Amino acid sequence: MKMFIQPSAVYLRRDPVDFRKQIDGLAAIVELTMKESLGSGALFVFCSKQRNKLKLLYWDKTGFCLWYKCLEKDKFKWPKKHDLATINIDEEQLHWLLRGVDIKCDKTP
Length: 109
What we know:
This protein is of the alpha+beta class. It has one domain. It has helices spanning about 25-35, 90-100; strands at about 10-15, 45, 55-60, 65-70, 85-90. It has a five-stranded mixed β-sheet. The longest helix is centred in the N-terminal third of the chain and has 11 residues, at about 25-35.
């Protein structure tokens, strides 16, 4: 899969989020809970409690973009047992995650 943007970083929120949240709610989580800057060029990834849905939020210099993926039968291999609440991964690990591969995140920030 070719990336639709060149993010400066990719951050996963380890804990699931309420998927009724849209751009404003997810942006609040990024700034208030994850303590990250929305305008940094980073991509923020959120997972549903059932781990069958993902939302990706990013700022593209003209506005926010929200990308959504829902699996019909499987679950995403989400790093639930990680020490950090915000996990930094690289672009390749994001591609693996989107394909259903366990990314085995490193526990260092």
